[in-house]
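Student: I would love a firmer grasp of how sequence relates to backbone shape in proteins. Thank you; the sequence and its tokens follow:
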Amino acid sequence: MSIADLLTVPDLVSTAHQSAAWPFEEARKLVERVKRTGQKQVLFETGYGPSGLPHIGTFGEVARTTMVRNAFRILTEDKIPTRLLCFSDDMDGMRKVPDNVPNRDLLAEHLHRPLTRVPDPFGEFESFGHHNNAMLRRFLDTFGFEYEFASATDYYISGRFDEILRRAAERYQAIMDIMLPTLGDERRATYSCFLPISPKSGRVLYVPMKHVDSVNGTVTFEDEDGSDVTLPVTGGNVKLQWKPDFGARWAALNVDFEMYGKDHQPNTIVYDSICSALGGLPPEHFVYELFLDDKGQKISKSKGNGITIDDWLKYASPESLALFMFSKPREAKKLYFDVIPRQVDDYLTFLEKFPGQPIKEQLGNPVFHIHAGHPPKVETISDAANHATTVTFAMLLNLVAVANSEDTQVLWGFIRRYSPSVSAENHPGLARMAGYAVAYFRDFVRPTKVYRAATEPEHAALSDLADALARHVGSTDGNELQSVVYEIGRAHFPDLSGKTKSPDGRPGVSQTWFSTIYQILLGADRGPRFGSFAALYGVTETCELIRKGLDGSLRAEHEQFLNGRAGS
């Protein structure tokens, strides 16, 4: 379905104009911009510095910008053409060798050369820059983004930036007047907004200009061997320093919207001023908070201390990653492996809620923006009595754990017993999630599980739970089985605080009861809705699981696994 199909939804456009969802808030700024300028097209841009392998922050810029672009198309009823340009700064000099690539010695020989003139350490592409560009495009294509890719090397060499470079030479002093006050004394003494590329060494040079000829569009500088060299600013002979490059690119391409991380925020006035000095209109900005690794440090491409795009996709779907990008973009967030399960299950929850929501709530639901207004139906499975269940990532992780198997076919055995008609063909999302769950459990969950012994009160409660569940053997009704879990919990672990009560006024169940189940039977502090878990796993199997938890078998099996892992 297209934006045109979406625009037929009653009240959608009028409601979107009032929506508090951040993509609509940003899109409304662009609507006002178009009213002021009268322009006939809107250009969205994202920037990528290919000094290291693409990471999720790079993907996040494209995903979030796409969300704003789609919101703008809705607000303008798709009457104003839009483009999304993904621009790679691949003409930058390689200032250091990344930590997370092979053949680092090979790269070290090419320091300070443009990234598109540095050999590919993987031996697959024309250059390191071409390799990293390909990695980015591969994922963007896989995800289905509608975008145009642009290479700084291509734009500089082909002449597409010639006009703005000549203008930069003409207005050289104006640019320097913007830049110099932002620099320290030492840097100010040698700074130039132009970076010539040595015709002898091929390196990007950070040297002062001896002369800038505004009429002929040339610069004169001292090369590395001490000789004076004069080069035209056009044709890829020079590039701009990164701050002037930002503003010059906006002016050259007439960019209307660009987002970037908080580390760029202090430079916004510099970017805007240079854009204006070169005759352009600065774009609308959106500043997002930075991603942090598991130690709370900023993620860096060159350090490789975050999750790569391929890392996330090994354990979860692209949609779950898009949800992570949508949520609270102006708050710093930890981006590491332990955030993945929550994102997967939150995505399923939002998907489940969407069809029943009024249009105002739908426009604030993340899945509206993840899927450009056309989210798919959530996949559910049903038993013979037509009890529908959404299989969560947490539930699959626990099924893998209790089955003591890393074979997805074992998972499908449980699922098909509950719902015989279900298959990987008619539930492709569930099939993918089963594979993700096995991989995630193997690498992250199983090594960290901690099973404990039951106290006497807990032993009594779990024994009663096994007896009570045994009277429901064959049931696949998760609600019915959850009621059993709840009643046993009320008898042994009532909530005496009075904060929770059942509809008949009796005390609710203490959270201690559920923690007891998870810690003793699943080796975790949290877990799935246990009645739904029992329905899928099987009541007989759940009773056996309780027995193994009480007699210490689960702890013994896990200790054996840990000992074997330590030995290997």
Notes: The first strand starts at residue 42 and ends at 48.
